[in-house]
Amino acid sequence: MSDDEDITFMTTSERQSFDKVKAWASVMKLTEATADAIVELGFSSMEALSLIEANDLVETNIPIGQKKLLLKAIKKTISNDINAESAETTSTSSTCVQRGGIQNGEFGNASGGSKDGGSNGPNKDGSFRGPIQDGGAHGSNKDGGSPEDYYIQAVMRQLASQQKQQELLPAAVNSVVNDNSMNNLGLQARREVANLDNLVDTFRSYTYAESTKKTYQTYLNSYKKFCALVNIPLVPLSKENLARYIAFLSQKLCFNSISNYISIIKLLHLEAGQPPPIDSHYIHTILQGAKRVLGTMVKRKLPITPQLLKKILTTLDLQNQNHISFWAACLVAFFSFFRKSNLFVPTLAEFDAGKHLSRQDIVFQTSGTLLRIRKSKTIQFANRLLEIPLPRIPNSPLCPSQALLLHVKMIPAVSCPSPAFLYISKGTTVPLTYSTFLQMLKHSLSQLELDTSGYSGHSFRRGGATFALECGVSSDLIQAQGDWKSEAYKGYLDPSFSHKQQVMNAFASALSQKRPSDA
User: Fold this and answer.
1) Domains recognised in the chain with CATH numbers
2) In what helix (H) or strand (E) does residue 225 lie, and over which residues does it extend?
3) Is 113 helix (H, G, I), strand (E, B) or coil?
4) Where are the alpha helices (DSSP H) in 28-109?
5) CA-to-CA distance for 349 and 346, rounded, in angstroms?
6) Which of 136, 287, 299, 365 has a Cα-to-Cα distance from 318 of 20 to 30 A?
7) Vertex 515, ends 512 and 519: CA angle to 5°?
8) Which of 437, 441, 444 lies closest to 423, judged by CA?
9) DSSP helix/strand/coil, 177
10) Is 261:250 a contact under the CB 8 Å cutoff?
11) pLDDT for 452-473, tens place per residue?
């Protein structure tokens, strides 16, 4: 047989197998969609069909009712074929022994045809019993059907019989034979997979902190706007279009912000399984040029100093509950170096006792006050507890412990746990949000005729760290107090001119002294 003839033969055989599977499915009252699904799974012949197990159907879209009907039909078909084969083998065993080989009756009936006239289609019970002439498996059937088809059916019966015998030891324990056990195992497996998938989704949802998610959303919105503008998909992005996006961002952002904004492109490509276009020499040259043209100088907010704090105090009425709340927040922010995300609740509904400073984590002591923070920018995995002491400064308007204690007494907590700083709004006690705090700060600065655009909540963190440096506190202690993970804190420090003058005075003092070597 030539190669071409072989290909033609196999194609015809496969088509006949498909037709038999679908005919069997129709007889067993299975839907056409179920039959198609079986074939797509690779069970495209009756031999393969007999090997289907419940676990094979878990990932399919076949309705559960059809799955049960399918498993029942397979069991019935295998059982009928085994019973028929057993009866026929018994009645012809002597003939087979006498003739010494595979003869008529071993895989078919002695007459070479079925009782209904030798049809090779499915029986009423869904089983297939093809007509075999004298000569056994390699004979030809009366109606011109392919002898290979009947040989396959015979082998299928033997395989099914062997499989059934192995699986039924012991029958009471084997779950494949029993429909209910098969279905229960399938349902249990699906539930377990669903539970595990839900857990995976939960882990994925906690990959980034909420603040990081909001930042990435800002980056994504900008990138989507650019893609819509130039009519390109989000992924994949060519290096040429990435260069255009960098130019697009340079029209409104500084270089440091550009570097942050394009990070979302790398993340999108990694999620899509695509190589990020950022890691190329061409993009490196674009960024290097942008850095040289735009510069990397960061315009930071001005620091709040002790002198400015005293001026802010003159704008407040300490008989007012809300002014006390604001003043206590100012002093705690200055002395603790806390980030605004730990001090203030972003909105009324987003209080997190682990992340935001709460009344329960404020401990008043004789020497001062102890504050505890459980989550921060650098503590995201509950790996440690941040404890920050605040001093007690007798007879000083800048004593944070006294201001905080006064605030707690004037506005008691109405819930447990409760945010540290509360505010009275229309007769109701609510958390002091960052937006409200910033609004009050700008109001005080405006009364002092200062440019409010130069200050923010971050000014307290920067001002406290700078004042500590001027007081001679070591950089290691400043870093620990501010919970800085890296040396990025050095960018926040702003030594005053007088502090720098002290350095020069030390130089002058050392040089003015006579040394023995100079004599």
Assistant:
1) 3-180 (no CATH), 210-294 (1.10.150.130), 306-500 (1.10.443.10)
2) helix 210-230
3) coil
4) 32-40, 46-49, 64-91, 93-99
5) 8
6) 365
7) 110
8) 437
9) coil
10) no
11) 999 998 899 888 888 888 888 8
